[in-house]
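Marked as duplicate of an earlier ticket. Keeping the data here for the record.
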Amino acid sequence: MKNSKRTRKENGLFFASLIVSIISFYIILALEKQDAIIFLKTMESQAVEKLFLLIPVLYGFSLFILFFLVYFAGKYQLDRRGHELGMYLMLGMKRSKLFLMLFAEELWNSIISLAIGIPAAIFLSEIISLVTAKVIGIGVIGHEFSFSLSAIIGTIIGYFIIRLIALGILSGKFFKKDITELLSDSQVEKHRKINKAVISIQLVLGVILLAVAYARAIIGTAWEHTTFMGITVILGLCGTFLIFHGIGILFEMILTKKQNKNGLVMFTFRQLQEFVFSKPNTLAISSLLILMALCCFGYGLSVGFISNSKEPHVIDYTFNVEEQVLKSELERLNLQEYIDELSPIKAGIYFENESTKSFSIDGLIKAVKKQEDGENKEILLKNLQYATRPYLISIDGYNKLLQLAGKEQLVLKDNEVALYNDPEFSNSNSMDILEKALKDKPFLKIGNESYELVDKYYKDSIVTDSLITISYGLIVPEKVFNKFTDKNNVTTYWNATLTKKFVKDEGLMQAISKVNEKLNTTDLHYESYLQNMGRELFYRVAASYTTIYLAIIFLIIANTVMGVQFLMQQQKARKHYQSLIYIGATYKMLCKSARSQITWYFSLSLVVATISSIFGVRSLFTGVMTTAMKSQVNKLMLISIPVIILLSMVEFSYMVAVKKISDKSILKLTDIKREDS
């Protein structure tokens, strides 16, 4: 127990990382207990089930990569204790008993980390659930405390499995060493001599391969076929590894400039040179893990933000039923006190016959052709060519929607119409071109008459979800609507809003759920805002929970592996530090040198990952994105900037933790010097 306590104290960074991993494991395994998921099961059950099928894969993948974190940290700890464990063997302890001692220490540390991590995970899971309940409108009243026993068991089993497997492998390697090897001080690895021309070529080639890989992904070539994606990934991986193999040339240049500097500047960069030259693959892997974390954060948070920033919520229900039937059913169910008001909106397809003749949108097409050439213009022109029989929307009903949304009413003259574009089909880049074209006030031919388009297009949803989706339509005066539509093919949708008091008392989601329970007892054909909200919420949950979870795991492993790797290298170079102490180097000088090494060591991986993440996130927006979101790529990229800032703060905290551990290690070396003197 004393050894376990000392291990936790000396390697607190690793211990804290394991606790965060335990929390992450529990939260992802207990996802089904989250209020948002319970709520989604009522509407998007099939999508939720597919998400649940993905969770074991995420969990297994996380355990696999976390194993390497445990392995590296355990190797560092055993290397640090090599002299101590060698003394046990020299004094007569059997190797089997030594293994049992290490096993007991590992078991005790695991129990303590689980005892801290699981309660923290349950607490954090409840906080997330409460916040989610508040955001989606369920309300705190609708929240029930719960914990997942299966998640706890899964977390404990998985955690013990990776720790014991890592201990078994490390013990097998450790006990093959001779006692003399354990008792001797670790020596730093010999510096590899590398031709400057070779590493320069590696650096340039790495940059080229990485540029080609990201160009293929951003353009979209990589997403066309699995083979193309495989080639792109291989190019990216090779480019990253070559960059870290060739980046040592930078240290050669720095060393040349620092030849006449005083202090430990030369020692600092010589140490870094050894670390980079001897462990370029470790830095490359860490950089790739940070890159994946950045991409997961950037993609997940951006998608979640965009899916939550669509048109404002205005209407709660849409009924597709006759007025008398609807009002009688609402009266029978005593729903008048909950529903604020009903407002009709009429829509029908343009009716073409011999008297009305054909519909022509040539005037608008000509106005679009005058705009600046580009891909978005060509897409818009192709879409407009199919607008031969548009939907016509009555202005009276549409103005009621604008009134509910607090927007300015639309006023049309007898010879004016307004262009309508459903939000689901809106492409911001194409719509910008369309809006410029509308400034020319082009004319449309409807039947025998010409109608002028107003200089603005409208896109407010006319129903709650998907009863009707209109790519391009026209908002027209009542007379025009009656003239150019067939009464038998006109649909009247009745939109309803709930009373503000009812929503305030119950919360939006609870209020709609209660009304739904009553409406489900009837044959009324209706949609509620829950269906639209449920779809958006699922996208947000799927994007945010899974990607942020993976990002946390990637960050933990990347930073801990780098930290442990540096400390292992420092342990092997202890003879160098001792030599500097004997010739007069002070504790502060050594700490300053080590801290500078740590800053450079972490920054190398971070800088490469950060630059790559800009292209990586942009690549994801090309290949893994809905049509509506593809039109907002610039906005999505801007959202990624705070993610990079957040990551920098996390990296800084890890660097500080590693620097403190390094200071303690150097302090022990100075104590040894004092004892010798």
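See parent ticket for discussion. The first strand starts at residue 317 and ends at 319.
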